[in-house]
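Model it.
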Amino acid sequence: AETLTSIGGSIAGAEEKEGDEKEDNEKDDSDEEEEDDDEDENDGLTPEEAAAKTKMFEDAKAKLEAERAATKEKNAAQAKAGGGDDDDDDSDLEVLDSDTFFSQLLGDDEDDEQSRALMQSFAGTGLSNNANGKKLTKKRQRFMQRQEDVHSTFRELDLLELYLGRFADSRDVSLELIQKLHAALGSACRRAAKASAENEAEQKGKQGKKEKRNSTEQSMQDLEVALTERLGRVLRQGLRNVLRPPSLKKIAAWQTPAQWEQLAEAVYDSSLKSKHQDLAHHQHQLQAGALLLYLCCAAHHQAANSWKLGERLARQLLESWSTKKGVENYCQITLKVFASRGPAMLLDLPWTETLRGTAKPFVQRSQIAFVSDCLPHFAALQTDKDRALALFDSFIRFCAECLDKSRTDESMTGANKQKLRREALPALRLALKLRSRLTSEELKGSELAKEVAAAASRLRESLPFKGGSVFMRCQELCKLVPKTEAGSTQQKRPAQDSKEGSAKRSKDQASASTTAAAEKSGAVEKKAKEPNAKRSRKAST
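Modeled.
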């Protein structure tokens, strides 16, 4: 248990530490190299020792130049006296081995501290360079250090994944590990968003032109995204394992209902306040946060035998979805998890009231599509059939209202009207089909069937073009609804229209045939007159 706790703490601590550090983003790498050269030149030495080292180096250089000048004069004198050739000059050259060179350069005293400091300076300079001899920039050094930390985190995540996949429900330390992984995932998402924003800002020049992307920046961003995906995958897999019914009963006993409620509130607040929810790598955090929130609600249900916590949080999510900005993705993902795993807690939510009160058209359409996707889960609840029927009836009436709204509301644009119809018609068709399966009864003679048939018929008659997807869906919807008094009258309308259309077509055909006959007779008369005109011209000639 201590080992697992330390591993989880190291992952979360490393991410928090890296998230709180302030990075030095200097754009000119040449300035960084010059600064590094100035720092490394006197690395590990005091100013007095550095001055002594420089003086000793200059003295050794002057001594070596004097010896070379003396040797050159001596060789020149010998050549002038004896007439030596080039072979004699080569024989007079002295080749120094490595020991002699260092003794000439550093001195003969082995106990000289300055000499040892100079050697350490040369050694340190060689170690600070890369294999090509080029010095690394600060940004590259930070990337290499971050790469080592991420690789270490990957190895630790492999161990945690193995433990959470097999022994997650055996010890209560698993809950602490899940919380630490969730915190580390949040930090990793913030770092990835920051790196993405910085790279996008650096790509644009002063005049809006895109500059060439640095390979180090791209590698840093890819590394952060890979870490986010890995953390999200490990956390989601561990949460799915602990959410199994046998494991959930064991986990519910690890904490009291009050502690589960406190943990759920903390997870809800942290996930709702997260920024950049529209980015791709933040989807891992939102999905993991939704599973963790449902774990708290399900464990609270097992401990307190009530869904009050889940219903309260689901109501807050639905309200935030309609009123707050930038939280649509989190609310939709979390409510989808609740609907697929615990749909009973969503039956009493004010769905239709919230849909009517939503001001933004695209949010309202997304909510209609979401409720339509959740209807099969609600229809499968045989124990709560009455609550499910009430939800189906209210949603069907709301969709019928949307059809009338798209026809009569002048404040809506034509595009929004068409999009609303394309969302409401399939949802209405599916709701009617699932409701008939849920009750095993037909809707014949009910007020609900009359309202739906009347709304679909009014929309069909108001369409300027008798065709297209909306018209065909209205036709299908009228066929699905059983024949009622209102429906039978509406069904007579197409037949009457067809009779009028056939009469009009026959009249048009008769007029067209008359016109064709007149044209044909005129052509015959013209053809008959042409030979007579030719004969008269020939006779006159």
